[in-house]
Write a structure and sequence with these properties.
It is built from 4 helices and 5 strands, in the order ββαβααββα. Strand 1 and strand 2 form a beta hairpin.
Length: about 120
């Protein structure tokens, strides 16, 4: 399956991806584009880069319960990336809207998903 392209905003100095835009029609996209901070990249690469930054930010500890995330699975499956505001409610995949939490918090906390199951990208399954 081909990896689709998404619009991203990069940090001004580090050029790291800090958010994935939902489209190219928002005022935020327009402003970032005028500043030269927008680019088109494969979605998998963009999400992976954001996940790595969240992993560095949380230093391997759940941002909700504080416990060490110690499973022996690969990095991207070790930490669950949770959106504070779900995409279905207008949220986005970004450093500001995402947190790194352990599997237990993500799957069992009513604040995370309640009675619905989280969804993962096919490439991460």
């Amino acid at each position: 399956m081909a990896n689709r392209q998404v619009w991203v905003e990069r940090a001004p100095l580090g050029r790291a991806i800090i958010r994935i835009f939902r489209g190219s029609h928002s005022p935020d996209w327009q402003k970032a584009n005028e500043c030269g901070l927008v680019s088109l990249v494969p979605k998998f690469d963009a999400v992976s880069e954001i996940r790595k930054q969240i992993w560095q930010r949380c230093a391997g500890n759940c941002e909700w319960c504080g416990k060490r995330i110690t499973e022996t699975r690969p990095l991207w499956k070790r930490m669950h990336m949770h959106e504070k505001i779900p995409k279905g409610s207008g949220g986005e995949v970004s450093l500001d809207n995402s947190c790194g939490i352990c599997e237990n918090c993500h799957l069992n906390s009513p604040e995370a998903h309640g009675d619905r199951k989280p969804q993962w990208t096919k490439e991460l399954e």
